[in-house]
């Protein structure tokens, strides 16, 4: 795998749109993790009333839950890192207006009308500034270098 700079504006837009998808995935993962913790707590509290043969099954189930929780924690970490990558790329832009447009549009998920009002600019000026920001932002994609053709990950 190797990181390659994305040059195409449309591809950069699609990459930035991933932020909201990753954010949603992160929320779902955190909810799953919390449900698992609640299940483990309830099971551990009820273990005292279970006979010895049932205890082994219950302990095995708790171990499975802990393994699942570990995988969820790893996915949470991956999502958090991915979101930080997008935020850092936006923060590296030198023009404050460009940063604001990309942050409002892709990180906060605001629509064009809301951004126009918030920044006190026309739609044309907004699109021009967004295009300039997309030209200037440095985003990367991972490509598989083992194959004959590069495969986007």
Write the layout of secondary structure elements.
Elements: E1 2-5, H1 9-46, H2 52-91, H3 96-107, H4 112-119, H5 123-136, E2 140-143
Helix pairs in contact: 1-2, 2-3, 3-5
Walkthrough of the structure:
It is a single chain. The protein has a domain at 8-92. Helix 1 runs antiparallel to helix 2, helix 2 (52-91) runs antiparallel to helix 3 (96-107) and helix 3 crosses helix 5. It has 153 residues and is mainly alpha-helical. The chain is built from five helices and two strands. The N and C termini lie close together (9 Å). Strands 1-2 form a two-stranded antiparallel sheet.
Strand fraction band?
A: 5-15%
The biggest beta sheet, please?
2 strands, antiparallel
Low-confidence stretches: none
The arrangement of helices and strands along the chain is EHHHHHE
Structural class: mainly alpha
Q: How many strands in all?
A: 2
- State the share of residues found in helices, binned by percent: over 70%
Order of strands, main sheet, comes to: 1-2
Question: How many H/I helical runs?
Answer: 5
The mean pLDDT is 90
Distance between the termini: 9 Å
- Which descriptor suits the 3D outline? elongated
Radius of gyration: 22 Å
């Amino acid at each position: 795998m190797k990181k390659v700079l994305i040059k195409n504006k449309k591809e950069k837009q699609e990459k930035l749109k991933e932020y909201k998808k990753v954010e949603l995935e992160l929320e779902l993962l955190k909810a799953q993790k919390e449900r698992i913790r609640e299940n483990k707590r309830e099971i551990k509290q009820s273990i005292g009333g279970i006979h010895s043969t049932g205890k082994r099954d219950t302990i095995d189930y708790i171990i499975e839950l802990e393994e699942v929780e570990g995988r969820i924690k790893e996915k949470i970490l991956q999502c958090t890192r991915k979101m930080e990558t997008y935020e850092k790329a936006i923060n590296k832009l030198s023009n404050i207006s460009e940063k604001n447009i990309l942050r409002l549009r892709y990180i906060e998920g605001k629509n064009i009308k809301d951004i126009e009002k918030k920044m006190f600019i026309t739609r044309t000026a907004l699109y021009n500034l967004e295009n300039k920001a997309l030209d200037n932002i440095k985003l990367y994609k991972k490509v598989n270098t083992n194959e004959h053709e590069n495969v986007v990950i």
